[in-house]
Specification:
CATH topology of the largest domain in chain A: Uridine Diphospho-n-acetylenolpyruvylglucosamine Reductase, domain 3
Oligomer: heterodimer
Structural class of chain A: alpha+beta
Strand content of chain A: 15-25%
Shape of chain A: globular
Distance between the termini of chain B: 23 Å
Number of helices of chain B: 18
Strand content of chain B: 15-25%
Strand order of the largest sheet of chain A: 3-4-8-6-7
Strand order of the largest sheet of chain B: 15-12-14-13-17-18-16
CATH architecture of the largest domain in chain B: 2-Layer Sandwich
Number of strands of chain B: 18
Helix content of chain A: 25-40%
Shape of chain B: globular
Radius of gyration of chain B: 23 Å
Number of domains of chain B: 4
Radius of gyration of chain A: 21 Å
CATH architecture of the largest domain in chain A: 2-Layer Sandwich
Helix content of chain B: 25-40%
Number of domains of chain A: 3
Structural class of chain B: alpha+beta
Number of helices of chain A: 13
CATH class of the largest domain in chain A: Alpha Beta
Chain lengths: 380, 478
């Protein structure tokens, strides 16, 4: 395994590479088509470069464990606003997730519906591309439109365009309080309709999920979260609960959202897991259509209904054909997050792209990785 | 500023091009009379002007596609134009180009409150997007100062910000999908009403690409419900340093105001004389606005006022009514006009780390004396996005050049302290030649190679963003 200790060493390693490389952060997210090749780990490039709490700015080396980043921020009562999911429970992996891995996979959590995704808080990247060039985009300031936004391009590129060496973020203050309004026994369609009403209210909802019966509790739970100053949380939760439901606070609320964030209801259970992004009100519609098309599944709805986690049998194509066929009439995309290597090797893990967009993506890869050495084929 | 010489071979094709365009567009949508093309000779960076060879005003995605297909076949450069409010020369034509204006495409296509989005044609103005949904309590968050006039197409091209983006983000954080016409005329759909990219984040790449990768004709935008209320507080200090400290302390306290605006003495004096907002006589003035219910606003302002009091302000004025709020904002909103009363001005928009504010303001003051040109500073302090307004006299020979040199020095200073050349206006032609101060040749090459993928012939807005020398090979090969 190659373990460069600096950006310069990383550039040398990539310039001198003679075959395909598997880029690894913490190795906790084995997603995508399996890649053969020598491992290249970012683990030795770690440490906080700069943290300015008064400017909500954090610059950190890509191999830094997420836990270390969180601890540094928490010491100043701050956090990453986009609430990155920890994939270890769902995927049954061990190791320490890195901040670079979070960026490479554009990992967000329930707060994404309100605050934005990882890519929305990413201010800058430094990386080495497949040519061995040290490149940068963005910086450490919150507003920056200087040149093309390669920051967004690198977020979610799964190490196929370059290996990240340094990332900078806009961070967020940890709010004084949080509370969740919990409604019980709604159908998926009723639950998502309730989430739509909450998200369309003036009460700044920062979490909106629906877990059908058996996933978080015996009954279905529909959850709406608010965060902020204590007084404000009490007021907003109260107003939202006028539509029905009980209010849970602090640790109990946080625990519910951790379980949603990490898709804990599907952890340790047999089956393949899909992550589907649709228009929020289409979440329950998709589930109904899958059932009608004969695909047995369980569904967990986050992002107001727009993020659907599906648990299906690990048979054949793990439902890929049916899911994408039903999705084509709705719009959105499906990614196979958990499945044995054998299935991931033959089923398109990422949503197949229309011809012209596939051509553009291939063109971009050809510029940033002309030799095809960076996680080749991982994204299809 | 250098405008590349027109290609005589392209100019010679004008009659044939006009004829071909008239075959696919209504007669009044093709403008080739030089007295009329003159209307498109500049944008809001009016110091530079160059009339295009032709201008077209398509009314649909299909018409945009037809225009681009023809221009592609004829090898003619195309300059996309929203409402022409760019402060960076983003819509400045070259003499051998076709200006493609999207102003006729301004329809609302879909409003969906349950899913909180609106789909519009890209020529629609920013403010009229909010106008469409505000009766139902919703709004579109990015609010550039030119929002009455500027088009969503231009907002996407430049990734526009505004006063309220400290809380709500800029265009890229509120854009869900686009319909875009490629340089060769093919129409692509990227994103939609769902979140996140299916593959590489092409939407994120297109937003802020200054019309160089494609022409966006439709956009799906995130809309939000308005908060119950908002209230500003005005705080005056006798030094820029202390005002900067106050900004940092507020943010560090965990408060996220929707806006923190900063004005320095030259700007305060100019706006006071122009609009009489009743501002205090002081060195630096902050306008801090928070949102929520009455009780939430009270709680947040209590923290902010505590912080301000500890810093011994010259004035601390909380709005007690809608009228008082309007008066507090009046001066800020008329700042550009007020400076324009004094003289011609050039508005920069470099961004700096918030902690460097006092140092940068001091250096700008010193440089102002060295250059003999006045500067007023009014800017979005919460995110470090500065707006130095350099005063000059367009009728005095040499003044514009002096102003350009002064501006370049300020922007280089922004980069030196860890910031960037432009926070929300874009590079355009204005900052094109300064890109080397922020990016290495490899960085620029990597960005230009993206344009190679989308627009191999470099026909879309070609002479922008990149230093002319750096892009010459690609532009001339076309």
């Amino acid at each position: 395994m190659m373990t460069p200790e600096s950006e310069e060493q990383l550039a040398e390693a990539l310039a001198g590479a003679t075959g395909p490389l598997r880029v690894i952060g913490g190795g906790t997210r084995p997603v995508g088509k399996p890649v053969a090749g020598e491992a290249l780990s970012t683990a030795a490039m770690r440490g906080v470069v700069l943290h300015e709490p008064g400017a909500l700015t954090l610059v950190v080396r890509a191999g830094t464990p997420l836990a270390e980043v969180s601890a540094v921020l928490a010491a100043e009562n701050q956090r990453l606003a986009f609430e990155p999911m920890d994939h270890r429970v769902l995927l049954g992996t061990a190791g320490a997730p890195t901040i670079g891995g979070v960026v490479a996979a554009n990992v967000s959590g329930p707060r994404r519906i309100q605050a934005g995704a990882c890519r929305d808080f990413l201010l800058g990247v430094r990386f080495v591309d497949g040519n061995g060039r040290i490149l940068k985009s963005g910086g450490r300031v919150m507003k920056n439109v200087t040149g093309y936004d390669l920051v967004k391009l690198l977020a979610g590129s799964w190490g196929t365009l370059g290996v990240l060496s340094e990332v900078s973020f806009k961070v967020q203050a940890i709010p004084e309080a949080e509370a969740t309004v919990v409604r019980r026994g709604l159908s998926a369609a009723e639950g998502v309709a309730a989430l739509s009403r909450a998200l369309g209210s003036p009460f700044d909802v920062g979490g909106a999920a629906h877990a059908p019966a058996g996933l978080l509790a015996d009954e279905a739970l529909t959850l709406v979260r608010v965060e902020g100053m204590e007084q404000s949380v009490r007021y907003r939760a109260g107003r939202l609960a006028e539509a029905g439901g009980e209010i849970v606070e602090a640790g109990e609320s946080a625990d519910l959202w951790r379980r949603i964030r990490d898709v804990r209801p599907f952890a340790g259970r047999a089956g393949a897991v899909w992550r589907v992004s649709v228009k929020p009100t289409d979440g329950p519609v998709l589930s109904e259509r899958l059932t009608a098309a004969g695909l047995a599944h369980e569904a967990l709805f986050d992002w107001g209904g727009g993020l659907v986690w599906l648990l299906v049998a690990e048979r054949g194509d793990a439902g890929a054909g049916t899911i994408r066929e039903q999705l084509s009439g709705l719009g959105g995309h499906a990614t196979l997050i958990r499945a044995p290597e054998e299935i991931r090797a033959r089923v398109p893990v990422f949503q197949p792209r229309p011809a012209r967009l596939a051509e553009i993506e291939a063109g971009i890869r050809a510029r940033f990785d002309p030799r095809g050495i960076l996680n080749p084929g991982l994204m299809g | 500023m250098h405008i590349p010489a027109p290609d005589p071979a392209v100019l010679a094709r004008k009659p044939r091009l006009a004829e071909r365009l008239r075959a696919v567009l209504p007669d009044d949508a093709v403008i080739d009379d030089p007295t009329e093309t003159a209307a498109y000779e500049c944008d809001a960076l009016s110091a530079y002007a160059c009339a295009p060879m032709l201008a077209v005003l398509p009314a649909s995605t299909a018409e945009v596609s037809a225009v681009l297909r023809i221009c592609h076949e004829e090898g003619v450069p195309v300059v996309p134009r929203g409402s022409g409010t760019s402060l960076a020369g983003g819509a400045l034509p070259t003499a051998d180009s076709v200006v493609l204006g999207v102003a006729r495409m301004n329809a609302v296509l879909e409003v969906d409150y349950a899913n909180r989005f609106i789909r519009v044609e890209a020529g629609r103005t920013n403010l009229s997007v909010t106008g469409e949904v505000e009766a139902d309590g919703f709004f579109y968050a990015p609010d550039p100062s030119s929002q009455l006039a500027c088009a969503i197409a231009g907002n996407i091209a430049m990734n526009s910000g505004g006063a309220h983006c400290l809380k709500y983000g800029v265009t890229t954080n509120n854009l869900l999908g686009v319909t875009m016409v490629m340089a060769d005329g093919e129409v692509v759909e990227i994103g939609g009403a769902h979140l996140d990219a299916a593959g590489l984040d092409l939407l994120g790449l297109i937003c802020g690409s200054e019309g160089q990768l494609g022409v966006v004709t439709e956009a799906t935008l995130r809309i939000l419900h308005k908060p119950e209320g908002a209230r500003p507080v005005l705080i005056g200090f006798d030094s820029n340093e202390v005002a900067g400290q106050c900004v940092s302390d507020i943010i560090r306290a965990g408060i996220l105001p929707v806006a923190i605006e900063f004005m320095d003495r030259p700007c305060i004096e100019a706006t006071e004389a122009f609009a009489h907002p009743g501002y205090p006589d002081c060195e630096a003035l902050l306008i801090v606005e928070v949102e929520g219910s009455e009780a939430e606003i009270d709680a947040q302002l209590a923290v902010i006022k505590d912080i301000a009091r500890r810093l011994d302000p010259v004035e601390l004025r909380e709005s007690g009514s809608a009228e008082e709020s309007a008066k507090i904002w009046l001066g800020r909103k008329s700042a550009f006009g007020a400076m324009g009363q004094i003289n011609d001005y050039m508005c920069l928009d470099g961004t700096i780390p918030v902690s460097k504010l006092p140092f940068v303001l001091k250096r700008i003051g010193e440089m102002s004396k060295e250059y003999g040109l006045g500067v007023g500073n009014v800017f979005h302090a919460g995110d470090g996005n500065m707006h130095p307004l350099i005063l000059y006299d367009a009728n005095r020979p040499g003044d514009l050049e002096k102003c350009e040199a002064f501006g370049a020095d300020i922007l280089k200073l922004c980069v030196e302290v860890g910031g960037c050349l432009t926070g929300e206006h874009g590079v355009g032609v204005e900052k094109r030649e300064l890109m080397g101060a922020q990016f290495s040749p490899d960085d620029l090459e990597a960005q230009m190679s993206i344009k190679d993928v989308f627009d191999p012939d470099w026909l879309l807005n070609p002479a922008k963003v990149f230093p002319l020398e750096a892009s010459a090979g690609r532009r001339n090969a076309a």
